[in-house]
Structures are given as structure tokens and as C-alpha cells.
Amino acid sequence: MTTVPESTETSRPPAAAGDAAEQRDICLEHVHKRYGDQTVIGDLSLDIEQGRFYALLGPSGCGKTTTLRMIGGFELPTSGTVRLAGQDVTQLPPHKREVNTVFQSYALFPHLSVEKNVAFGLERRKVDKHETKKRVAEMLETVQLSHLAKRKPGQLSGGQAQRVALARALVNKPRALLLDEPLGALDLRLRRQLQDQLKQIQRDIGITFVHVTHDQEEAMSMADTIAVMNGGAIEQQGSAEDLYERPETSFVANFLGTSNLIDVTPESAPVDHEFSRGTTVDLEPVRYLTHRAEGYAGPIRIGVRPEKVRLYATDQEPPEGDNVLHGKVVQSTFLGVTLQYLVRTAGGLELNVVEPNLVGNSAGTFGAGQDVQVAWDARQTFVVEGGSAGA
Amino acid sequence: MSLSRRRKMLPWWFALPGLLWLIVFFAVPILNQVSVSLMSGDPEKGYELTWSFATYWDAIRDYHAQFTRSFGYAGAATLIDFVIAFPLAYFIAYKAGRFKGLWLLLVILPFFVSQVMRTASWQLILNDQGWLVARMQDVGIVADDGRFLATGKAVIFGISYNFLPFMVLPIYATLDRIDRRLIEAASDLYCSRWTAFRKVTLPLAVPGIFAGSLLVFIPACGDYINSSILGSSNTTMIGNVIQSKFLNILDYPTAAALSFILMGVILLGIAIYGRVLGTKNLTELAG
pLDDT tens digit string along A64-77? Predict the structure, then answer.
């Protein structure tokens, strides 16, 4: 008797800890993975809610694929627990887990037709022949490949193979779908197109997707929740907006887009009920929302996105309440849609500024060597790190 | 000639040396032997082309027992080699790790010594008073007063031993090429290790098994060394007959006719075998 239920709709293993656990589809608790004396994953915990599109985002070697493979059962954690729907599956082999995987290179069976590839899982679970046929046909319809049912994988294009891999996994109605860089091998245009399709399919069938990628734009465009991984640990997780507007670590601030990071010495007393203030290396004051620096003591690092920053000539007056730093334009680049500046302050602080191209001629722009004021709304300031309060 | 025309011709020029090789070393001897097989006469007065097809019928009538024996021995040896080679190739491909090269070297190492030498040394090892035959008598493979040498078993053993690497290498090559992620995918799709082996690894290894069987079976059918060194007059294979007709009795037409009958039967066998493995096993059995 297999522990894999026929489908997630009809039977579901009893949740271990009531309704709260039921909501958490996939749960890793203090997972470690070591190969010899090399630690790949160090104390990783995460919860993925039912029906989420969850992205594991990070540079190569950050442990994101290893994490996915531990959920799928292809790697066993050195220590820690993996739960699916509240059930401890840490030691279960892949074929006894209620998840299916879309592999990076698709791993379609070359000796079987598209149809047979898709039917593979259902046949192994001894689903009735008639039912199998029906579900395979429906699934091929969903991924728009009905006309290629009899083809062999070798005769498919990359995008088609990718969709067969998707169909082969989804036809089993898994509790969650694991996707290991599923679009990595495709060209940019096709990738964007399949991103939309993938997101659409996920919305339609409503199961949990765990998507591993190193492409931040892909993660941001598709995922409800993104976990940014670095060095075998999750740096920060949240929505694309959370991560972009309020990054909490330098790594996140620069892995998703680019950031100006500025080391600041905080003043002891807050400015008012909302803001605190600190001074830069040039002894210029900058303000930030007090609650964002909560828990930090001593020097902190603040940041602001280049497109949130505006340049003003020395005789211009920046808006009231903005943080204002003074510097000299080092480099000015015309990029059509935007103008990019590199500004250096007297103390050696370098700031990137991206301004929309509103003027349309060089009169309103700043040339290299010009003295400028760099200003941004203090609310746009985020705090990425600092000494912890206890230290 | 225009450039595009010349471009199209280029591959044919590349094929030319090989084509010449085939014509000179394959087509010419074959045609020559076809004409020899249709000659009649005797060694004293010489042979003349008389389109004597009767030679073929006579050859079949006189030597069908040797033909049958040859196919039987070759088939048995192919089967034995497959049973030994598949696990060995599987082990080398998946479990030998960094010792792969060493294992492969060990498999082909016997080739560094002449086949006749190796077979002759087995003749010594398997002699009637030897240790090995005594042990085989102990376990009942050989009757207490019986011998191993000069039996069909000894010949099959010799052929299996001599051709084993031809089975191991192609199976190893196909197994080694199989993408490990396919096994992971199978296991993701509810296959136990055994089912994954049966449904993915084995069907994908079929081309190697096919190639290996041919590489063992074909030369084994025409082999005469094993039978002449390890066998007796009761184990004569068709290779021995051809050899003796050609080199001792100088009955060239019969030798040539026997060769062509052998070739024809083998070609027919391969066609059937390829059909069975090619279409059935690959697409239908796997599904």
C-alpha cells in the first residue's frame, strides 16, 4: 500500500497540529545539510502556505536547489525535519512524497512519447487506463501540446519540452509542484512568455509552487513570496515589494536591483515620534524611520534606491523633509529612458542616481565635475544592518 | 562548378576514402568468393565457374548439424555473456566512481594477450587431472569420471570467456550515457528503484545490449579456435568446417558456400532481432 493518495482533493493525510498546520503546506524545521565538512545549508527553517507561489531566489551555490531537492526527497537533510501537510516526510523517498518536480533540464524520458511521458506517473500509481487517458489528454490541452502527443522528446523545442515536463508533473495532481530553474535553458522572450503561462496555471489549479531561480526579475514577476538565499541561509523573505522597498540586509539590497548603502552613526535621541537621525562620513545628517532600525545599536547602514534619488544644483532648494547630501558628479551617462549619474561626496561616499529622462535636452542635466545636491524622501530610507542591541 | 554545387559535393569527397576501402576490401573479396562458391572442379585440376548452385544445397545437407551447433553455442555464449556483462557494466557505470578507468582496463586487459594463447592456457587449466575439474566434479557440474575439456560446455565456456569484453563495453557505454536525472524523474513519478530500473534504465540500455549481442554472437558463430582447442570432433562448429575445407582439403567452393550460408542466416537473424528489440521493446514494452 502506497502512502501517496490518489489526489489531493479526495484524500489528505491528517494534519498533525490542527488547522494551523493544514495551512502550512511545506515546512522545513532547522534543516542542515553537510557534504563531508562542507556546510551547504545551515539551520534553515521555512513555512510555505497552501496555494502559494513561493520562489527561492539566490546566486548559484547559495543552496536553493539543495533546499528544493530536500523537499522533493532527492537529498536527505543531515539534521532537521521536512514536513508536507504537517506530516514528517524527512526520511521518505521521492516516490512516496506527494510532490512532483519539474527538473532543470526537464529530464523527459527519451524512449517514451510525449503522451507516455505524461502518463508515466499515473501508470505507476495504477490509475485506471481510461481515467489516465482522459487526464493526459486534458493536461496536454492545458499546456497546448495536444498536437504533439505522439512525438518523442528529442523532436521538441526547448519551450515545448518544458511544458511537457510541467504536464508530466501536474497530471498527478500533487500537493505541491517543485520547479528547479524551469526556464533557465530558454531564451529571454520565450522565458517571459512561459512565466506568464506558469503563473496562470498556478492560479488556475491553486496548488503550491516552489520555484528555484537565480533570476530576480523572474521571481518578482511570478512569486507571491520570495525567499532570498545566500550562503545556505534565507536572508529575507516577503513579497517582491517588501524585498525591494524594505530590504533588511546589504545582500538583499544589492541582489534585488541596486542600492546606495551609506554607513551612518546614529544620534542617541530620536528626532520626533517617527524619525531618527544619524550622520554620514561627511558629518551630514540623514533621517530614517525609527522602527526600521529597531534592535540595532551603534553604527548602522542605511540605503536608498537610485531611482528614489534626485539631483539638484547648489542654488536649488530640495523639497522640505528630504535627506540631502552634497557631492560632485563623477560620471553622467545618457541611457535614453533614464539618465544615470555617479556622485562622490567629499568624504568619498559614492552614490548612484537614476533620473527619468523628462527634459529631452542636455540643458537640464548635470555634467561631470559639477557640484550637486543629492536628495531623497527620508521615508524611502531603509536600514540594512547594524550592531545588535545586545552586543 | 558553382560554389554551392561544390559545397554539396564536399561530403561525398569525404566519403571517398571509406568508399574505396569498402570496394577494395569488402566488395571485391565478396564478389570473388561468390564466384568461387559457384565453381566446380577439384584441387588437382583446378576450379572453373559453372554456376553450380548445387554446392549450396550439398553444403546445407552435409553440415546442417554443424550450423545448428554453431548457432546453439554462439547463442548460449551470448546469453551467458549478457548475464555476466550487464551487472558488471552497471557496476562500472554507476558504482565504480573514480576507478572506472581501471575497471574498464581490467575488462580489456585479456586482449593484450593473443586469443590462441589464452585459450590454450585454459586447455591446460581445464585438463582432466587438474584442480578445477576436480572441484567441478565435487559440485556435480562434471560427472565423477567425466571430463570438462572436449565437451560442448568447454567450447561455450571458451567463447563466453573470449568475447565477454565485446558485451561489457557497449552496455557500459549506453548505461554511462543515461542522464541520472531521468532516474530521479522516475523516482519523482512514483517509481521504486526496481521499477525505475525496469521502466527507464533497461529500455535505455537496449541499444547497448543489441550492439553487445551482435558483437558477441556474430564472431562466435564463425569461431573455430575455441572448438579446436577446447573441444573435440563432437563439438565441430561451422568455422572449423570452413577452415578445414579451405586450408586442408582445398575445397574452395564448399568453403565459400558455407560462408555465405552463415552470413545469410546471421543477417536474417539480426533483422528479426533488431525488429523485436527496436520497435517492440523500446516503445511498447516500456509503456
Answer: 999 999 999 999 99
